[in-house]
Structures are given as structure tokens and as C-alpha cells.
Specification:
The chain is an alpha+beta fold. It has one domain. The chain contains five helices and ten strands; from the N terminus they run E-E-H-E-E-H-E-H-E-H-E-H-E-E-E. A five-stranded mixed β-sheet has the order 2-7-3-4-9. It has a three-stranded mixed β-sheet with strand order 1-8-10, covered by helices on one side. It has a two-stranded antiparallel ribbon with strand order 5-6. Strand 3 and strand 4 form a beta hairpin. It starts with a strand and ends with a strand. It comes from Desulfuromonas thiophila.
Length: about 190
């Protein structure tokens, strides 16, 4: 593996299906790493980093189904844009009681999930499809966010399945380039 990578964050893009609603371009059809963000001050606050070795639209169709089914956490996006994590629905794991609660609230939760998807601003970087590089990069971004000062550490979900660098792997420095500001994400990280 290489010692140094430059990654350019392209975007913001609309969540697939909301391009016309929000007046943003569709996400590209290549694989790589992505950031789910919301507008915040003079830049963007990050909710999550994700990876895919398939085209972004394919991965985002799966995410859409999970959001609309209640599998993922749904946030109040106006609060997120103010740096506040306010959950409308807590995804991740089901109990019989939680399933009943979701079914009773389904129509409102689907509206809230669609509102969240429309408010997300997606950024992508084409860094190839090498599995360990993608996994390490995703883990480094999320772990960096978790260690940041509030509110940047409070916005992302906890408990993601992350695969950071193993002790036996060589350190890689990643330098990010972008025409926008990301709060909580340094310009350079080690993965």
C-alpha cells in the first residue's frame, strides 16, 4: 500500500430521489467513500462516513430502504444544522415493543425520514475500491469525529462496525481537499 493519498471531496450532492426537490446534482456512479452532512454555519457538520465498492446510487438505495423501514436513526435536521443531535426515532435493533411503537408511528416517521434524506448534503471521494483502504479511511474519519469537541462528536451515531488500521499495517496519511469546510474533520489524518 502507499504512504500518502490525496482525496478530493466532491459535492454537495442530493440524496438520490431528492435532486429536483433540493436543486442539487445526483451523486456520481462510482464507488468510494462518502460523507452524510448537513449545512452548518459556513460549512457542513458530519453525521456519518460510509464506504462502498459498488456505485454510490446502489448503496444509497439500500440506505433509503433502511431509513424508511425504521432501521436507522432519524434526526431532526433543523437541530442538526444548529449543532444539536435531536432524535425523532432511534434505529438500530428491534424489540417487540419497539416494533409496535414503529408501526403506530410509521406514517409520521416515514415523513421525518424523507425530510432527513432531503436535508442531507452528500460528499464523495473516489479513492478506489481496495477494501482495507476504504475500511481504514471510514474508521479513521468516524473515530476522529468521536474524539472531537462538542457538537461535532455528538452528531454521529455510535456503534458502527468499524475496521481501523491494524498494528501490523503501515500508516497511510490522507490529505483531504475540498472547496467547502467540514467541521470536525481535519485536512489531514492518518489511517
Amino acid at each position: 500500500m502507499v504512504d500518502f493519498i490525496e482525496a478530493y471531496w466532491a459535492g454537495p450532492y442530493a440524496w438520490p430521489g431528492f435532486e429536483t426537490d433540493v436543486g442539487l446534482s445526483a451523486i456520481p456512479k462510482h464507488p468510494g467513500i462518502y460523507l452524510l452532512t448537513a449545512e452548518y454555519r459556513d460549512g457542513y457538520i458530519i453525521y456519518a462516513a460510509g464506504i462502498t465498492r459498488r456505485p454510490f446510487p446502489t448503496r444509497f438505495r439500500e440506505h433509503t430502504r433502511k431509513y424508511l423501514a425504521g432501521d436507522y436513526t432519524i434526526l431532526e435536521m433543523s437541530a442538526m444544522s444548529s449543532g444539536i443531535r435531536k432524535e425523532i426515532w432511534h434505529g438500530w435493533g428491534w424489540t417487540p415493543e419497539k416494533r409496535r411503537d414503529y408501526e403506530e408511528r410509521r406514517s409520521d416517521l416515514v415523513v421525518s425520514a424523507r425530510r432527513q434524506l432531503a436535508a442531507f448534503r452528500v460528499f464523495v471521494a473516489d479513492v478506489g475500491t481496495v477494501p482495507r483502504l476504504l475500511e481504514r479511511l471510514e474508521a479513521a474519519i468516524m473515530n476522529t469525529l468521536y474524539k472531537e469537541m462538542p457538537p461535532y462528536c455528538e452528531i454521529p451515531d455510535r456503534g458502527m462496525m468499524l475496521a481501523p488500521r491494524w498494528e501490523t499495517e503501515k500508516v497511510i496519511t490522507v490529505r483531504f481537499q475540498s472547496h467547502v469546510k467540514f467541521f470536525g474533520l481535519p485536512v489531514e489524518i492518518e489511517i
